[in-house]
Amino acid sequence: MGSANELVLGGADDTTLTRAATVAIDDVHRIEAKYSRYRDDSVTTHINRAAGGDAVAVDAETAALLGYADACHRESEGRFDITSGVLRSVWDFRSPSPRKPTAAMLAEVLSRIGWAEVEWSATSVRLPRAGMELDFGGIGKEYAADRVATLCIEAGVKHGCVNLGGDVRVWGGRPDGAPWGIGVRHPRDEQSALAGVDLVDGAVATSGDYERYVEIDGRRYCHIIDAQSGEPVSAWQSISVIAPLAIVAGSHATIGMLYADRAPAFFARSGLRWLGVDAEGGVHSALDDDGPGLH
Amino acid sequence: MRPLWAAALALPGILPAAAVAQSVPDQGIFTLSYLDYRDWQPGADRMTVRSPSFYVLAPFAEKWTVQGSVVYDQMSGASPLWFNTLSGASGEGVHDYRTAGDVKVTRYYDRYAIGIGGAYSHERDYISRAASLDVRWWTADRNTTLAFGFGGSADYIHPTDRNLNDGNRETYDYLIGITQNLSPVDIVQSNVTYNDGRGYYSDPYKPLDTRPERRRILAWLTRYNHAFVEQNATLRLGYRFLNDSFGGTSNAFDIAWVQTLPQGWTLTPSYRYYTQGAADFYMNPPYPSGYVRGGYYSADTRLAAFGAMTFGLRADYDLTQGWSLYLSADYYRQDPSWRAFGEGSPGILTFSARWFAAGVNKTF
Hints:
The complex is a heterodimer. By secondary structure, chain A is an alpha+beta fold. Chain A has helices at residues 14-35, 43-49, 60-75, 103-110, 137-154, 246-259, 263-270, and strands at residues 5-10, 56-57, 119-120, 124-126, 159-164, 167-171, 180-186, 189-199, 202-208, 213-216, 219-222, 236-243, 273-278, 283-285. In chain A, α1 (14-35) runs antiparallel to α5 (137-154), α5 packs antiparallel against α6 and α6 (246-259) runs antiparallel to α7 (263-270). Chain B has one domain: monomeric porin ompg (Porin, Beta Barrel), CATH 2.40.160.40. Chain B is 7% helix and 51% strand. In chain B, a hairpin with a 4-residue loop joins β10 and β11 (249-260). Chain B starts with a helix and ends with a strand. Chains A and B meet through β1, α1, α3, α5 and β7 of A and α1, β1, α2, β2 and β3 of B.
């Protein structure tokens, strides 16, 4: 998945642990292969190639992921959009001499974004315009983390901790009876933890502006981009969320980033615990006053 | 949160389902989904980043460690008071920070078993080594089991964080326990553990936090189950006393009644009372009052004096073919004025939480 992954299991005999780990890791590879936009034979590539043409048949898993993406789109009032990956073509985070896209470039790309226009059902999906693309990158990794937990629990593994590129799901506490300790990375110091979370069952996911970004004229533009404006978000350095499932924690963290200064209200509504670092480095959390302004 | 929840639970394989058994477990599988959780606290006056996490998760942690804990297990493996893993927006900065392994071998003989364990954990800023030895011996009728355990761990902390010094910690654990079948319907288990640690105990994430370099903890846990055959019920009692050389003493009392009802229903009301005294060096708000340069100091409210109660009700329903469902509701409230054997710490807010859980269970 292009990032550091970790799986710690306990509470079963060696044969069970080995078998569970193998099944779980195979499933992570399966999900990656199925939804990678870099692979020629992936479901994502298949759907994207047919953009502007016929509907493509999808299986139940893909349909459920589309359903989840649809719920995120609604909850974020359109800011979270799995068709927004095309913005990568104008915000090039790998370029040695990055430049801001012109208004005309942005307008062209924005015309190819719009989840609301995608025709989808429990059995098929159709991207209505040529040049549109789906990208499951925003939810696939978290879904895979939850699948790892499910498969291991089903195999009889009582205690586990899976970390797929910073999205963490734990179950059963540590084998010694203590909760799992999960550090939340400091957004400007990769070697230190900003906070700690003790968790027996549940997930912690973090969305941050440090994952991929470019600096243009001294300003940081990160890879989390508002699907409506086409502009990278800048209100938060990072947001971490605690939830029972990794996919719920991860999408809330991303949606929080996209909501900018309305993130506290969003989290107040969602009822989930969160911790955010604002653009000035100030720390906000669920127990702060949820006023509209940041301090 | 509800729309996202519903969508998440619609994902295939997000909850364990026995129908997808790829390898058949030799025991029941257990799935839990927290469908609703909320907690509240008057005002919002937190001094540290870490406290909210603690407050949120204490009920989770308390809930499930109580249910799942076997004191004996605490003997095996290292228990570094550090983070097990790191949540970040990507793998950046996460890679190569931890290599860990642990192994435990138990050899069973006719009347006794010997277990030897070792663990090693290495992170960018933390190394922990631990070893344990335990012996269990039982009588020929298996009505009595004695357990002895010894464990040691050596931790080296080398924070890359700004204002921290290197630290070492050595800990030794001792356990002695007995499990006794008193009659066909009574079983009692009692364990005493003693933990002696020297080294770095301060919280590296809290400024001014300075704790003694030696910590000794003595804990005594006793559990008693009695089955009422005619009533089709079991009474579960538990009591834990813990004395901490930091100054705090805690008492926890648990009671639960497991009532089997007709047509596959089981109802389990439960209650837990917990109370603890403050550590000697815990200072009341406002921060940093009571801080003396060179002295011990902590404003961590986990070290304060308070009492807490948990009320729970759980309903289990047996379906056919080994399937069962359960629903549970718990309410937790922590209040300094509920402390027993002394005054609660002033200036701390009460904390309440409720949570509902639902689960599916399948026994094979």
